[in-house]
Amino acid sequence: MSLPPPPDTAPLLLLEVTACLSAMPDPAASGHLRMFEEEAAHKLGTAHAVAVSSGTSALHAALSACGIGAGDEVLVPALTVIMTVAPVRALGATPVFVDSDPATLDLDYKDAARKVTARTRAIIPVHLWGRMGDPGSLAAFAAEHGLAVIEDAAQAVGTARNEQLAGTVGMAGCFSMKDGKILWSGEGGFLTTASEEVAAHARAFRSHWQPAPPGEDPFSRLATNSRLAAPLAALALANLRRLPDLIELRRAQTQYLLNALEQVPGLTALAPSAGEEWNGFSPLLHIKLSGSRAFAEHLAQQGVPNSTGSFRLVPCDSRPPFPRPEQPCRGTAEILDRTLAVILTERDTQATLDHYADVIARAAAAWAP
User: Fold this and answer.
1) What are the φ and ψ backbone dihedral angles of 188, each rounded to 5 degrees?
2) Are 201 and 61 spatial neighbours (Cβ–Cβ below 8 Å)?
3) pLDDT attached to residue 25
4) Residues 337-352: b if buried by 16+ CB within 10 A, e if exposed
5) What phi, psi does 85 have (nearest 5°)?
């Protein structure tokens, strides 16, 4: 298997950004933003897309649009980053951390059911590393308990399960376009929804409540300044138009690295679940070596970027801003301690991946912590 050379993206990106800059200053900054939103909604098969300044801002707007506020509780997997949880707290609600199943990476619905109370209003499934849980189980659980579903699909653009795209299962799907995501604009994000009401609320929420939703006055509520800057919208639009190629490239990169590591003792590739069309966001391997987290940290020091070694990813319920849990999410800890999630970008060539494979193989062979 061989990889194509990195794409020459400069002409397409330059074309859109130049067109955008030539129209500035433009306080409305609406041209490329409107085109991006229309094309994103079409590509993802949803009625509306609302672009904002980050994936965190997308979650903030979506949670607000679903009525989440002070006194409410929101179920959130501990298998996530703190950026998922920050908007819950910003709205005055309480995050309730739920464990995940090490065998599937999906939510542990028995644990989730134990944690539902009369104040629980929503659930945020997180498609970490682009992997998607079973949408049928999620929808059934949410319906049983009367919960709004707001998906954190920051890393999951293009992933589908049982022919349902990530970000289209619940009331809203939230995506990041930070550098390193498959669809990127440097900084940025967007939410998708089938609901006109959610979309109108999100548009108002990102711009100090203007334009206000039908029947409401501008500035009649406090909101945020989380608009997507026009040049970033131009970058997002250019990359959106090559999204199928970007997804195909990431899948090829991931498969290439996993193939190269197939015979390495102590490492086993984590295969997608039944019915899952994974976007290949990050090559995932189960570490069977002792001192597995230390092994991931060692690889990071050797120049192989990965989630736990480079970014010290830990169960979110153990982070300092949150009360120490009486019962930690042990399934989540097991997943993170035993998973090597290599971080890729579209600039990673075959030579880069060969180097990663060589470093990982040599480190595994010599590992004796």
Assistant:
1) 145, 170
2) yes
3) 80
4) bbbbbbbbebebebeb
5) -90, -25
pLDDT along the chain (369 residues), means of 10: 75 83 76 94 97 98 98 98 97 98 97 98 98 97 98 98 97 97 97 98 97 95 95 95 95 97 97 96 98 97 97 95 91 98 95 97 88
CA distance linking residue 217 with residue 214, whole number of Å: 8
| Nearest C-alpha neighbor of 123 from the set 82, 179, 72, 157 | 72
Bridge partners, residue 189, by sequence: 52, 176
Strands 94-98 and 73-77: parallel
Measuring CA to CA, how many Å separate 80 from each of 39, 97, 194? 29, 10, 25
* SS3 state at 210: coil
Three-state DSSP state, 268: strand
In 3D, which of 293, 285, 290, 289 has the Cα closest to residue 268? 285
User: What does the block give as tokens for 208?
Assistant: 């100090």
Residue closest to 357 by CA, chosen among 349, 347, 346: 349
Q: What six digits make up the tokens of 6? A: 């990195």
Q: Which residues pair with 276 in a beta bridge?
A: 161
**Helical residues (DSSP H) of 66-171, grouped into ranges:** 82-90, 109-115, 135-145
H-helix segments, 211-291: 230-240, 243-260
Count of residues making up the chain:
369
pTM of the model: 0.95
Burial code of 301-334, b = ≥16 C-beta within 10 A, e = fewer? eeebbbbbbbeebbbbbeeeebeeeeeebebbbb
DSSP designation for 23: T
Q: What pLDDT is stored for residue 202 in this prediction?
A: 98
**What is the helix (H) or strand (E) element at residue 26, kind and residue range?**
none
